[in-house]
Amino acid sequence: MDDLLDGMKIIQSKDVFSFSTDAVLVASFTRLDASAKKVIDLGTGTGIIPLLLSKRYPRLQMIGLEIQERLADMSRRSVEFNNLSDRIDIQLGDLKQAPATFGYGVFDAVVSNPPYMEAGIGEQNPNPHKAIARHEIHCNLADICATASKLVKSGGKFFIVYRSLRLAELMTELRRNSLEPKRMRLVAPRIDKEPNIVLLEAVKDRQPGLRIEPTLAVYNDNGTFTDELLSMNPTGQKARGESHGICSEQL
Q: Residue 33 belongs to what domain range?
């Protein structure tokens, strides 16, 4: 049981999975309209994204969908511990079946921190829980974008954190599924280094027009976290999470 923020706590396990910087970044990057009422997090893991969003959007109803039974159980217990069961519903299931389960075009927004590595590319973690989080074992980018498009309303938003190396592929899949990229921010280990992560907001059934925000640097020159990065950190200290590639160290 780890501290999160404002008295909130989250259940994690080094042997299974712990949240990492990329989840914190996409939660911070998520901007919802005042009218937004219903959001789903695809691949919720420990439930970190719904927990963080619950503080910023107190009227929001959220579903956290997770395919791994042990992670879903951990997430559900974290939600219950924080007395958020009336606002966050953790569901066990395959995201590819989500539209049939929850309905088509019923969500104001979809959020996802998906696996970044293609199956068969790079060394796969022997821990199956961590392998599923990093590699496209149960779903791939095409599945994520297609599912998000089916779940979100016309005019609704999709927020995703991904590897900048696969940005062209991400843009292609978004547009293939009528999700128009509207806001983007690159993330780099330091301001003088090449970005390795992209945060992207797409909107369903909208015209082209992409706004690119200034690059976010994770570290200062002396190796400390930048002030902006620290402002996103819910605990004020480094987390023990598994990184998808955001930087060499986690919050």
A: 2-232
In a domain, 242, yes or no: no
CA 118 to chain centre: 17
Look at the pTM and tell me if it is higher than 0.90: no
How many structural domains compose the chain?
1
CA distances from 99 to 5, 127, 243 (A): 32, 29, 28
Residue 243 covered by a domain: no
Q: Is residue 158 part of a domain?
A: yes
pLDDT at res. 249: 34
How far apart are the C-alpha atoms of 235 and 204, rounded to whole Å? 34
Contacts of 210 (CB under 8 A, 6+ apart): 181, 182, 183, 184
pLDDT digits (tens, 9 = 90+) for 44-79: 999 999 999 999 999 999 999 999 899 999 999 999
> Does 241 fall in a domain?
no
Give me the CATH number covering residue 99: 3.40.50.150
